[in-house]
Amino acid sequence: MTRQTRIRSAETGARIRAAALRLFARDGYAAVSMRQIAGEVGLQVGALYNHVADKQSLLVVLMREHMEALLAALDAEALPEAPDAALEGFVRFHIRYHAARPDEVFIAYMELRNLGPENFAGIEALRRRYEDRLEGMLARGAEAGIFSVRDARVATMAVIAMLTGVTTWFRPEGRLSLDEVEAIYVEMARKAVGAR
Amino acid sequence: MTRQTRIRSAETGARIRAAALRLFARDGYAAVSMRQIAGEVGLQVGALYNHVADKQSLLVVLMREHMEALLAALDAEALPEAPDAALEGFVRFHIRYHAARPDEVFIAYMELRNLGPENFAGIEALRRRYEDRLEGMLARGAEAGIFSVRDARVATMAVIAMLTGVTTWFRPEGRLSLDEVEAIYVEMARKAVGAR
């Protein structure tokens, strides 16, 4: 492969993933055919298989990319050590990141049922790594007497569900700006974990 | 129609809805055909159309039944007037009701995208009625100085998302019983809305 061909191939791969993401989010994974995905990017279905093994690997790649980008973006936030400030940073980050990616969120949560057992385990491990970041903050805060949580694991699941829920109702043209929504959720999350 | 025929027809209708629910939850609405649903209940696809107009009306009926049963079950709880006790009752009810119906929850939230505009508006109105019950408690509690919420509407969405999230991770054979999970969420929801 020449350098040019490699670049073109990488571009095609990215276009395939973008098309699959759009179609999976709109119609659901099970309803979308490889032929449809090929059609979206202007390829013959045979040529599509030069870039991707099958529909399942396309789904896994989309989910893995989403989780890895999420983890990397959280790292890039470089949240403060203090549990209190870290929690505020996490809440704002999670809402902002997910509100901007409704298709990815929808697929990442809703198409888990369509993953084979091994792929499921891989994605779950990445999700667990993300959840562990928040759980660590809550546990550290509880230890320091700053938070009061009866069960850091359950509190983590509760806070994340609360925050992800924003993607189902938030509209940029709505009554509240994303910044106002973030502020309300920071306050609620702080109170929910008994922040002093 | 004789009485016998009417009863048999009603039973078939219920079996069709149960099969559709199972298949939609497993494969997603878009991937399921009327032929498949007919096969599940041992009918010819032509006979299926004696009971249901099309796939869309099957989806709407499932969602409407779910929301109406949910509202009726909440009414049957006859929650106390006091906002504090009402919130605790609501939290326990919501978790218990939804944890027992993962398929219905999955469809009710995930297949909204597959409703036509009019059907969507109808289901949204029912959902709104349910949300308004919690919002009313929070607003009354805030007025009485028992709760402290900056925005009763947003707090409602946050609490409901938090509670519904339980369906995604709770397993009866897991570390915590449903009763223990309920107790933790009651405490977190109370704190989140600043209950004194």
TrEMBL record, chains A, B:
- An example molecular function term from Gene Ontology annotations: transcription cis-regulatory region binding
Pfam families according to UniProt: TetR_C_24, TetR_N
Q: Which PROSITE patterns match?
A: HTH_TETR_1, HTH_TETR_2
Q: Which domain of life is it from?
A: Bacteria
Q: Which Gene3D superfamilies match?
A: Tetracycline Repressor, domain 2 (1.10.357.10)
User: Mind listing where the DNA-binding region sits, in residue ranges?
Assistant: 33-52
Residues passing through the membrane, by range: none
Keywords for this entry?
A: DNA-binding, Transcription, Transcription regulation
Q: Using the record's annotation, list all stretches that form the HTH tetR-type domain.
A: 10-70
State what protein this is by name. TetR family transcriptional regulator
Q: Which organism is it from?
A: Pseudooceanicola nanhaiensis
